[in-house]
## 1
Amino acid sequence: MDEGSYSCIFLLLESGNHKTEVSLNLLVPPVTSLKNESVVLGSEEVLLATCTAAAARPPGEVRWVTGNAKVRVTTNSTRHDNDTTTTKSSLFGVPTRDLDGQLIQCVVSSVALDTDKFQPFFLQLFFSPSNVSIIESSDDSLLCISEARPEPTFNWTRSGLALPLSGVRAEGAQLKFLSRSLDLKGLYHCEVSNLYGRQSAQVFVHVLSVSPPSLVIGWILFGLLLLIVVAFTCYRFGFLKRFTEKTYFQRVPTTESTPKEESRQAGVL
């Protein structure tokens, strides 16, 4: 390499020779990289991420910004034949839910860099499906919900019977009922699974038969028609007229006169 001490000699006529020593130091900026591991939720300490400042001269400095996360850091350096150094820093921690979603930053510093290099990432933990439940999302569909990472797959079945292809349609987490047929009732299961495990939930579906709108309208029209026929029959045979006359000519009872009123009436007469 060209690194070393260099001499500059120059001659002045009156003062003679002059010599100046110049030191040349070569700076090599680090090649930075960050690798975050696929971490599964658990209770034992595991490797979370590794940050590297490779082939630097002088050696680069690696540090972590972790906020309130409870982690542990180890750092080691390897010197190469070309006088460069690779510094590797590892981040360890117990993968609990408190760590999930935490912002972590790897920071690399070096005199060969104009500014520090920041490499941020969000710590994501992977876990099997949990808290599986089935809710009614609308009048004609069920929704299976769960917490899982990565995204799970959903499988709908009906206990003891095949899933009726013509009556329901499964679309991922949703089970949609296409009709209100009574043969759709039964115990339905939703199984949620990913690479790390599976869990299921079940719900019993009661189906109430509902008359179609056309049938309801038909009954209303039939009732109106029946009322018109009854009214016409009464009018045709005079039932309505007789009832009206009887009501009109019926004697209305009067109140009894008081003794004073009878005396006045007798005086007038």
## 2
Amino acid sequence: MVKNKNQRRQRRLQTQRNKTLLQHRQKVNDRVKRYVLLSKRVNHEPPCMQPLEDLTKIDLSQLGTNGLKNDTVLVVRPIRAPVQLGPLLPIMNVVEDSKSHVMHIEVYFPSTIPSTAILAKDIVLAIKTPTYEMGKHGPCIKVFHPSDIIILEQGYELIPKAFETAPESTSKSIWDWKEEAELASNHEAYSKALDSYSEAIDLAVANQEEHHQLATLHHARWLLKMLRSRSEAAATKTSGGMVANLMIQLVNIAYQEKKFDLVHRRLERLLSLLPENNQAVGLSKEVASRIHEDQHGLYDFPAMGVESVPLDHASFTRLTEVRASDDRGRGLFARFKIPRGGLVLCEQPFGVRQSTTTTRPLSSSNAYTECNANTRIWLDIVQKIFANPSQAGRLLSLHAGSEYSPSITNRESNTLSIFVQASYMNHSCVQNTSRSFVGDMIVVRANSDIPAGTKLTTSYVPAISSEPNRHAELLGSWHFECACPLCESEKHCRDDLEELFHKVARACPARSIDPYMAVEEVNELIKELEKVYSDSTFDNVPRIGMQDPQASLLDLWNPLRNHARIREHTTALLRERGYWIVVTSGGDGKLQLEGECGMPHRTVVRALHSLARFPETGSRREESREYLEMAKQMWNVFNDTCITWEEELETLDEIM
């Protein structure tokens, strides 16, 4: 009697399981893409802040009605492989409790790991304050916050006995096996790579993964099998041609991943088998150029400036390294001494997206009908990491945690790029590097001579007289207060400076008024500014508010051809930007531009060019040439490198 009752109960449970699985498949195949990753409900249903020990344990049969189950915890385990229709759509599965009840589950929060690692089959989960809803295809549990779902390790007291004998989850995921295969292939350990791909394929079959993922794994394993047998296949012309095509494919894959050393090794092997292969010969020349860029940082920037984006060039980052910084977590440091104007790094973006207001139809790869650059670059990078797991570490290591609460705004962003190495540069208003862009690549040069071991800095907000509120912008956008030498100097007179900055913007004259009257007005303004900048803390840093008045005086005296005044205000302008002309000790007495906190700018180039054009009476003949060399060096520091110095010099000569 008892046996028959148990059999009926088992049949009833099995019928319910089959029904739920059918509803789950219907839900997965539903083409109405009405789910959005970050539902508005996240703001209305905050995460549970209580520890697991303070929550009441329930099972699926106690969910009953729609809404949150406050102060409760649900312990379940997935019974099949998870499904996700797109990176911005929820991850779905079916879970069971210790009494064999089953229910559909959806996870809505974003993740940096693949869907196969979330809600994986046979892991044990604790879901805090589960949200229960009756949907189109039956009841469903929804999870909106990462902290509300916890993977329980074996032996945890909340795990029911029914789950203790459950089969252990696979030690490695498909993601892990695929990454292991790629690493082995990069080192040309083809046997190990083939074994790893086979493990990934077996696991994909067992988990009933989607067809395209399984096909990708089979294709990759087939290519490796053909590559391993290239020596035997090269015995005949027909098979040799097949091997050439396969190896060219592998070369192209490595080339797209910017692994130029690997490309070089594969090309050498291909040319050793087929030395007259035209495609390989042509590609080897390109690879030689890329390796030269990667190792020596030698680029033809003017030519790159007219190339189409994305640029096909290697990144040069060998002179820099990422390490811990005493005051700012991590930073980028110079490994070797870099001279002023020298190339610090030139880097390809990890991801780049242009901003647009064009709407796009909803699809499985984009759950938003309209996305700004921030959203699109996020989607692009996630898909890039999914396709090439070995690249994940480079990007994810950028995140060192947050010390502030993120907020959502309606502010539209412009073109957005992520540069992994350059992103480690910390801020300083008197930065020691300048950045520019050629196509989609970032170019960073040294503002001054940088000794080995120096922390490399860049300016997030430019320190200019038309923007006196940079401190507030740094705090509002980047959540920190700058403590660079310039900010420390301005700290005691910030209110006076802001008032004077606005006065400078109103007072600097136009060329249409009487020049001598304008000179007098600007000189009065400079006397007033001198009182604010009288503190000795400004002795070695730029004086931002003085730059525009000095530039105005230079503009006013240039047409009057008063060489003495031009030299006076040219030298003053250099000082206001943090530079001084000094004479080196020794017999030669050469001129040298100094200024550890100097701010490179076109006005500095123009000032040095003026000193070369109007040398002081009785000066050495070499002085003009030395000033021009300094001007050229400064030009190389900050310009976008697409305009040559000769072109700029011709423009300056016309102005003068």
## 3
Amino acid sequence: VSEQIPQLISEFVLSITDNKLAIILIINVLLLVVGMFMETIAALIILFVPLLTLAQSVGIEPLHFATIAVLNLMIGLTTPPLGVCLFVCANIAKIPLMPVVRAILPFLLTNILVLLCVSYVPALATWLPSVLMP
């Protein structure tokens, strides 16, 4: 906190672009890549606060950002080359990893499409909570 790392990350990305849509894309790509190689909780502990600071600086609601972050990291768990869930499924089914990877591809593409929809249409992430908690 005293080093102001969240603010430095926010300033760095904002020096590249201040376009909200481009920043959402940068956050999505970063979290997808991180999700492929790190556990979800560790990634959230390390990256959530700096990226939330960045998201809020361009007008993204915290609930919307949290939904984007969790979806990205969930997709990362099922994405090769190091998708942890793929190894678990292959070991449970006692089959090689490649058939599992081939079987997951249509679902992976669908998940990425849903991620893009949720990322760029905030109402998809915020509608239900706004109805439940007026």
